[in-house]
Amino acid sequence: MNSEDLWGELPQVEAIKAPKIILEEQASLLAEKTRGLLTGEVKINSNGERFVINFEILAPTLNDYTFGLFIVIHEIGLYPAKVYYDGKEKYLCESEEEFKTALRELFSSDRTRTVITKLLTHLKGSD
Fold first, then answer.
1. Which terminus of the chain has a smaller tally of CB atoms within 10 A, N or C?
2. Where along the chain do its domains lie?
């Protein structure tokens, strides 16, 4: 029995990256840069049209210690995306490029570098 296609033509996917994909790429790069001592972890929750993404730094060999670095909230349309850092809304990103710029600033901030340095110090001390 053949099924009749009632969907019609589906729309083409936009050529932009979702915040989740960008964050997963950066999580992998952190693991690569620290030779696996630290990794990024991306946790996503959705409720209706709203997505909440937590980006954490994970130290697997330190009893899976996690440090919540920031939270991203966006609707189903991906952008704008709000980035919450240190408990406050820090960025409102209207596009993929604005989101990447915000991440560049967050990842190179003094606070993030301090967290990474302290975690690596814990791990190097346990060799």
1. N
2. 19-125
